[in-house]
Here is the input.
Amino acid sequence: MPFTVAIVGRPNVGKSTLFNRLVGRKLAIVHDLPGITRDRREGRASLMGVDFQVVDTAGFEELGGDSIEARMRFQTDRAVEEADVALLLIDARAGVTPLDRHFADHLRKAKTPVILVANKCEGKAGAPGLYEAYGLGMGEPVPVSAEHGEGMYELFEALMPYAQKAGVVLDDEDEDEFPPFPDEAADAASEAEAEPDPGRPLTMVIVGRPNVGKSTLGNQLLGEERLLTGPEAGLTRDAIGVEWIHGGRAVKLVDTAGLRRKANIYDAVEKLSVANTLESIRRAEVVVLVMDAAQILDKQDLTILRLIADEGRALVVAVNKWDVVENPQVALGRLRDRLETSAPQVKGVRTVTMSALNGRGIPQLMDAVIDSWTVWNRRIPTAQLNRWLAEVIERHPPPALPGGRRYKIRYITQVKARPPTFALFATKPDELPESYVRYLVNGLREAFDLKGVPIRLFVRGGRNPYADKGA
Here is the structure.
């Protein structure tokens, strides 16, 4: 278990800004409106060359019962309990509030040690609040500005005793050097081209319309109430990633905010949530599209499905609340017909009926995720592809060019996986009909068992670059 730091505090003191600063990229949604973060978000952070796990939490609220705030509070308490040390953030510009005092008293009762951090200390406006923070009785506050990156070395010094107690070993030579800021474009490019690494977590993103049971499914997979759930639509705002082990392999599960029709989105926070979800899809390996059995593949579901296919992600369709369907066979037939006619780009997509509430269908869902990921990573030998191509052309040659000239297709090769992508070398590539390209794509899907994943086929002209290398 890595050294873990939980960031806690009342709403709108800058917890998510500090989280983003420590992980080196904008993973958490940041907005002036209080209460944006509702679930725990975890990330791999680095400070002065020391790597650790950091957890962003919902703002402390003084409410009980079964309210959303009470459920958020439960998640925050769990994060503190599981951490090696907690950072209690206050807003130095606002000063110490009664809610700050209340939760300082609450954290004092916990077993986890707490470091008091006064945020927004840039300039002189935060000075009064910084001095006022001494009155909380939690030791000397660490002045920082999460937005501007000030005070990070002081925060590092405050964390180090707890890191060393947790077994973190410091390298003295690198202690004074900042780690390089990650190049997101370079990271994305290298991940896209890399071969599957069995030691790296499989990134599985759960998406769907609001209130179809995405977070309930996430909790069922994780085996704990890790994600905030409830009957209220739109509970999840951030895309929340949690790593766990399934069948001996690491999986990173990402729960996302519900996607509604664009015309129905007016709220600025929801727009940020949607952007966060779309970015999660782009970074995914397998996307699980959850839909409600009472509204199978409505227009919005199809819009989301096409978006996933356009991004080239592996896909699994999960139909939730199947236990309340009155005529399962009819409903399943309707789903398959709709997928066949409305989603040809992922023909043969794996479909699982399930109940996130009682766990029915969960093993089959994970089997489908692994199968889809395996196909998404598949590579086909060049010689095998060209034997197939010769048979296909003989059985159904491409239409003739104007003037009756025969259209020549010379060669095919797979240029990358994830998703399977092929280059077809031919004379006059612009004149090969789209219908024949679709015919070849469908042939590839059937011949090499590439069902349920997007396939890219690019027609290229010019000399075959592999002709002299042997296939």
The first helix runs from residue 15 to 23. The two ends are 48 Å apart (CA to CA). The chain has three domains: 4-166, 202-227+238-371, 382-460.
